[in-house]
């Protein structure tokens, strides 16, 4: 199983990139959102990957974060959701948006993805709602960048620092940290995930402390 690739982008198409990994080119299919986040042709990057194996097909899908890869795996487990539909959902909402929609039972947001009908959207929410807290808690750190650009030339591997690795954030995002804090306070994973998802939807740029405060207000007993 190929779980991660790091190399130079040789070319970009509308739905995939060709990644040169030490002289071997890998076609990696990505969402529009992921493609926009990748550097230009000729630069180095890293992607988490999922390999789809069929009788007549081997196809690699690439993701910038582990949480995006995990949502892709779970979405593919839902009846009627193939690789194309999964990428459409992730491309439309992003991994955090998918988590929010599923945690809140918002199948209309899922339905907004191209090619997703209401029955499929409802099935996604119903089948994955219990799994949303665990995936949301994974955080949103990107695939480790190519700290050194490995270039093979005349059988010598030269390590060349790249600016990209220094600029990539790591670690869990505010939603994951807020979810962890709420579960540590004794709230159930489902109710905590729903509150964090709603708070994040109301304030997408909020940092962890603000998300925790907003989620606690949502969880407070109504008088």
UniProtKB/TrEMBL annotation:
It comes from the Bacteria. Keywords: Cytoplasm, DNA damage, DNA recombination, DNA repair, DNA-binding. Residues 1-64 are annotated as: Domain I. InterPro entries: DNA_helicase_Holl-junc_RuvA_I, Hlx-hairpin-Hlx_DNA-bd_motif, NA-bd_OB-fold, RuvA, RuvA_2-like, RuvA_C, RuvA_C_sf. Has three domains with a flexible linker between the domains II and III and assumes an 'L' shape. Domain III is highly mobile and contacts RuvB. Belongs to the RuvA family. Homotetramer. Forms an RuvA(8)-RuvB(12)-Holliday junction (HJ) complex. HJ DNA is sandwiched between 2 RuvA tetramers; dsDNA enters through RuvA and exits via RuvB. An RuvB hexamer assembles on each DNA strand where it exits the tetramer. Each RuvB hexamer is contacted by two RuvA subunits (via domain III) on 2 adjacent RuvB subunits; this complex drives branch migration. In the full resolvosome a probable DNA-RuvA(4)-RuvB(12)-RuvC(2) complex forms which resolves the HJ. This is Holliday junction branch migration complex subunit RuvA. It comes from Roseovarius pelagicus. The gene is ruvA.
């Amino acid at each position: 199983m190929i779980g991660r690739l790091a190399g130079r982008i040789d070319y970009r198409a509308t739905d995939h990139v060709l990644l040169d990994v030490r002289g071997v080119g890998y076609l990696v299919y990505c969402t529009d959102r992921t493609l926009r986040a990748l550097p230009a042709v000729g630069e180095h990057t890293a992607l988490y990957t999922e390999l789809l194996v069929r009788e007549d097909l081997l196809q690699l899908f690439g993701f910038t974060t582990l949480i995006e890869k995990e949502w892709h795996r779970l979405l593919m487990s839902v009846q009627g959701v193939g690789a194309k539909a999964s990428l459409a959902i992730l491309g439309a909402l992003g991994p955090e948006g998918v988590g929010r929609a599923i945690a809140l039972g918002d199948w209309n947001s899922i339905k907004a993805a191209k090619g997703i009908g209401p029955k499929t959207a409802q099935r996604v929410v119903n089948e994955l709602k219990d799994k949303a807290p665990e995936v949301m808690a994974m955080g949103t750190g990107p695939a480790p960048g190519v700290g050194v650009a490995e270039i093979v030339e005349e059988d010598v591997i030269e390590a060349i620092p790249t600016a990209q690795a220094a600029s990539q954030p790591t670690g869990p995002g505010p939603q994951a940290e807020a979810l962890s804090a709420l579960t540590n306070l004794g709230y159930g994973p489902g109710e905590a995930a729903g509150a964090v998802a709603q708070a994040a939807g109301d304030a997408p740029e909020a940092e962890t402390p603000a998300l925790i405060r907003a989620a606690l207000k949502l969880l407070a007993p109504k008088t």
